[in-house]
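ok so I'm stuck.
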Amino acid sequence: PLRTLLAHSPRTKLVIDHWGFYLQKGNEDKESWKLLLDLAGQPQVYVKASAFMRVAGEPYPAPSLAPRLKELVGTYGASR
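replied:
not stuck anymore, here's the structure
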């Protein structure tokens, strides 16, 4: 569904907030994370690495998120 929308409207920017909330109540949704990374192939998709405390469930700077942040930036690049 998202890929279809993005293909149909290539000038439309999609901003995914809060890491796509791939982590819910301390449980990592690995399929959601994989899908989030797969969307990096669409140049109009951006991901906001925000709300660290809500995503991680631990105080800022949420060190448990460091490996995922590195993977996210490595996949999308620093500019998106």
